[in-house]
Amino acid sequence: MTEIYQPNEILLIKNGEIALKGLNRRNFEDALIKNLRYRLQHAGDFRLRCAQSTIYIEPKNDYADLEEACDSVSRVFGISAFSRARVVEKDLATIQQAAADYLAERLRECATFKVEAKRADKKFPYTSPEISREVGGYILSKFPHLKVDVHNPELQIMVEIRDFGAYIHAEQLPGAGGMPVGTGGKAAILISGGIDSPVAAYMMAKRGIKLVGVHFASPPYTSERAEQKVISLLEKVGRYAGHMKLRIVPFTHIQEEIRRACPEEYFTLIMRRFMMRLAQRVARDENCGALITGESVAQVASQTIPALAVTDVLATMPVFRPVIGMDKEEIVAIARKIDTFELSIQPYEDCCTVFTPRHPCTRPKVAKVAEAESVLDIDALVEEAMAGIRVLDI
Ligand code: ATP
Ligand code: MG
Question: Which residues lie below 8 Å from residue 23, measured CB to CB, with a gap of 6+?
Fold first, then answer.
């Protein structure tokens, strides 16, 4: 029989919002574990198991990188908080010594502390208050400069006696919050190279939605590098949202046709109606139930209420616009947090900036726009673009 590797340190994950989901809880936990497994791949071999609303992430060998695992876990949705914990045998003397060793550096640096114990395994012969007292007393004997402060300690030490062992940890680290990706269904994110759409993608993934990227490219007006920028942005978003597909839709011919045959003041609106039609086709092909965009009211001419109405009349599925009521500064704050901002501000052209009307119509009437575009063979243009789609894995 091969001996089971005993890790010194593991990650303990207390499920956040998902613990509230009653009957569905199993599905949510399963989704979270599946996502964690995928996201931990590059950090080495880990064993994952779930008991009493806690997920245990345990290194399977010395090569598993707990530091890297921590970093990945901090971006997995469905986790409100987690801790790095020392695992030891369920034996009081061992626990005392391990607590003093494991947190020695922190204990040396602070003036007050407190031990809080939780005994889930009732077979353990000491009660929670007894464990706190015994471990606290031992620490005081090893670090005589310390004082116990039960109300406002600088360092709070948790000792948890659970089924698989005793766990010692300091305060919890913040998780990414939200719901496990995949539990909220799937939606297509219209991703440009700008600041807003990656933030919109992140926000909806946080609610448990799995993403499929849709990007409209107009070569040679838009370059290879503009496309690479979109890929890099989605890779950044993927650190939270997990794996996704990106469908790149050729948009050149449509834009040229609009420019050739339609009134200039409607260029952008007609273009956005084509985006809507095509994105919905892609969404249906990919089993998505909704679209996501990075639109924000009043940011540009095509984001006034009447302009949004011109695209929305074509919608046959919900269109989520999570940044619709946010100021640019608020959006930028999130872009910085998820590390997309620096990429987004790199100056590559987007298809929206090609053929921009000098005087865009900000109060369009749906019927007028529809009439203006009716000179085009809309169905044929849509089919042609659909036939030219490229699919990438992010
Ligand atoms: P962003 O910062 O996301 O580029 P924006 O403020 O520049 O947004 P627009 O260019 O008008 O606004 O685009 C509004 C939304 O339309 C974008 O947030 C995105 O969802 C979608 N969109 C724009 N251009 C493209 C594109 N080339 N491919 C896919 N979706 C796009
Ligand atoms: Mg844009």
Answer: none
